[in-house]
Structures are given as structure tokens and as C-alpha cells.
Amino acid sequence: MILFLHAEKHSSVKESFRYAHLTCGFRKRVPGAPGRPSATKEVFITVEFELETNQKEVTAACDLSCIIKRTEKRLRKAIRTLRKAAHREQFHLQLSGMDLEVARKPPRASERRTEACGVGQSHVGNQCVSCRAGTYYDGSQERCILCPNGTFQNEEGQVTCEPCPRPDNPGTLKTPDAWNVSECGGLCQPGEYSADGFAPCQLCALGTFQPEAGRTSCFSCGGGLPTKHLGATSFQDCETRVQCSPGHFYNTTTHRCIRCPAGTYQPEFGKNNCVSCPGNTTTDFDGSTNITQCKNRRCGGELGDFTGYIESPNYPGNYPANTECTWTINPPPKRRILIVVPEIFLPIEDDCGDYLVMRKTSSSNSVTTYETCQTYERPIAFTSRSKKLWIQFKSNEGNSARGFQVPYVTYDEDYQELIEDIVRDGRLYASENHQEILKHCECGLEMALVSPASHGCGQMSWIHQGLAELDLSQLR
Description:
Layout: E1 2-8, E2 11-16, E3 19-28, E4 41-50, H1 64-87, E5 92-95, E6 98-101, H2 109-112, E7 121-124, E8 127-130, E9 135-138, E10 143-146, E11 151-152, E12 162-163, E13 192-193, E14 202-203, E15 208-209, E16 219-220, E17 248-251, E18 256-259, E19 264-265, E20 275-276, E21 281-282, E22 295-296, E23 301-302, E24 307-311, E25 324-329, E26 335-341, E27 344-345, E28 355-359, E29 368-372, E30 380-383, E31 389-394, E32 403-412, H3 416-424, H4 427-430, H5 432-440, E33 459-460, E34 470-471
Parallel strand pairs: 23-25
Antiparallel strand pairs: 1-2, 3-4, 5-6, 7-8, 9-10, 11-12, 13-14, 15-16, 17-18, 19-20, 21-22, 24-32, 25-31, 26-30, 26-32, 27-32, 28-29, 28-31, 33-34
Keywords: Disulfide bond
Organism: Myotis myotis
Protein name: Signal peptide, CUB domain and EGF like domain containing 2
């Protein structure tokens, strides 16, 4: 994913992440002062980033540990920018069609007074804002100034700019506002190198290549392989004995094409390496050709007491082969389980190779609530036949499919008859309107059985004619 953060009106930080995992949740808010309305819930989002370290960046001047430290510095900088954006109420997120923004906090009396800003900061409105990368704070003008020609600045909140390498002719090195040394100009281009990565540069010799700019050496093709010309920019310029297809890499020792091992992929022809799957993902088999074949295999566990969902691993992508997931739902005393299956996608197989089952215990003889090995695109809601549920999903090594995401909620057993009357009423599934509510509810499972024209997630009208408005918090 590409993370593009706006720190102020004319400032931004752009960073590319190979893997990002978002966890969303709700928690109750502390009631406001008497007479003032307050929301009953607030959303909190946890984001886990993974930033890849490229071993091709390793040079004689900067080994692998040096590259890792540089990568960690970039990640910390992106996180700092996120925190600052959230603190300044400049952080916006769109998730599942909803526009989210940071909750506004009323300023304290001490904060309403204009205070002196910190080093490298200037006043923007009533706030102190750090000078962005590519600028520095000029005390005489009391504002942020663009870095002049021949200099750069890759950090926020600085009071000077750093000179570009070889600043003997700064007018030809760059335009103002450089935020990275690579913008200084004069870098050696791909297929070139020099002692410091800047001009004057030499072409990579025959039998070597360099795919990136600003490097101090070139990579050897290996295995005594020549290149087609001087200044080669990739391993594909090496004259291999065979050309490897996607899903394979060229072994310079045996001079043969080898299938990419499980957990890696290669989408291009003629490469000498395979790309590792990001995060906790892996491939079903060797010889993968695309990152979409990297799948998250994590699943199963004990689920929450009141609400939650189960989903096939790697959802909404296709689930992995040879997977076995087990979940348990064990509600508190005097609570029962209500489940909605919006849709489920499983491959068509004669022997039911992939299946989902819900029953009281792991024993095949225990009371079964739900079981399927087929695709169903029409939603269904039902109550558990037992007070607790053991749920299992298994896939074989054959075909795969999108799988499922199944929400559930527990409710006070005093409402058992009411809930069962509602979920058994055929009108709930007959209307296309109600099917869409069951499939695409944004407010959790409570919304699944109610009209979208009502008052939100806390208080809504049941779709069944003749039922009065009901506060769903009672079901909790």
C-alpha cells in the first residue's frame, strides 16, 4: 500500500508499505457533563505496518545492519507524521465507505493562550507546526523557508538545511524544496556507479549490472555470465543459458531454472531471485507468480462474549489450501447466540472437500446448528441450538474460493422467543432491501435485523410490521 500523509496545507510525506494490518474496534465513551449529549461509542483503530528492507541496497559503505537502521528510521518518521497529523486533527481515514476523523477535544484554558513554539516550529493559526521536510525555520522571518539550491533537508522541524554532496556548482544540482539527498541531482543512474554514488560515474563493466541510482558498485551476474553490453541495469541483461519464466529463478551454479519455494513468488521473466511474501502470508505451493497468491493462514481462537465474527483465512481473498481453523464461542450465563451468514463461497466438489460446521462441541455426535460445503449468496440468520458453539472450517489441497465472513452477537435469553420469531419470518430474506442490509451492515450485527431508515446503531425500528421501536442495547 502507499501511505500519503498531509502534515499541513503544503506538506506531505509519502511512504510505500508492502503490508499493513488494520484492527478496528469499539469502546464505550465516558458520559459528558449533565445536559450535554455524548456518543455511546467511539472507534479506535490499530495499524501494524511492515516496511521491507531491500538487500540490493547493501553496499561496501553500508552493510545490511546499516540498511535495516535506515529502514527503521523511515518507519519511525512515518509513524511520527501519523501521530502529529492525529494530534493536529488533520488525520482522515476512509474505511468501508465511512469517512472517519480524529475526535475533537475541547481546548483547555491554558491551551487557548498563544504560546511560544518549539525549535523548528512556526505558528499556523493557533497551532505550532513543525517546518516540513525540504524547509527550515528562519528565526529572522519567523517562518519556514524552502531549502535553497545546493541543500536539502529530510527531517521535520529543522533550523538549517544540509549541503548537497559536491556543492561546487549548486545552481545545477537541484531545484529548491529538496527533501531528500536523491533530489540533489548528479546521482549516478541505473547501470552506473562511482565512489560516492554521484557524478562523475562509470558504466557497470561487462558481467555486472546495477538496477538503482546513486550506487557505489555493481552486482555480478555470477556463474561467469557476461552481459549484453556495458551499463547493464538488471539481471535480465545477463546472457543466461535459458530464460526462466515467472514463478522461477535462474540458478547461476547449475544454470537451470528453479521453481520459487513456498512463501515466495516471481512475476517476471529472466530473474535470479524470488520475492518473499509479506507479513504472515505464504503461498499454497511452490512456483507462485504473483503476490496475490500470498495468503494469510492465521485463523481460529476463542471469540468475544458479546459480539464478533469468524472469517476464512485471507478473506476476502481466496483461502489457502490444506487449512484447518477452529473457533469457540462461550457466552456468559443467560445469553444465547445469534448468527448471520451474509454469503459463503466454497468450490463445487462432489466429496465436500471444503466445509464449515457449527455445533455444540467437537464431537461429531453433538448438536449441530449449521453445516455446509456449498456456495450460498443469499443471506440467512439463525440462533444457535446450543448455548455455546464449536466452529470448524477445513479446506483440502484442491480448489479454493473466497470463503466467508460470519458475524454473531449474543443476547439476553429472555428475548429468545422474539429473536426466533424474527429470524424465522420469511419476509426477512424475501426482500432485496433486507438482503443488502444483512450483507453490508456497517453498524455490526444489531443492524442486520433492522431498518436502515432508523436512528443508527443504538436505537432502531425492527423491520417486522407491528413491532414497536426497540432499544437494542437491551439485548446486550
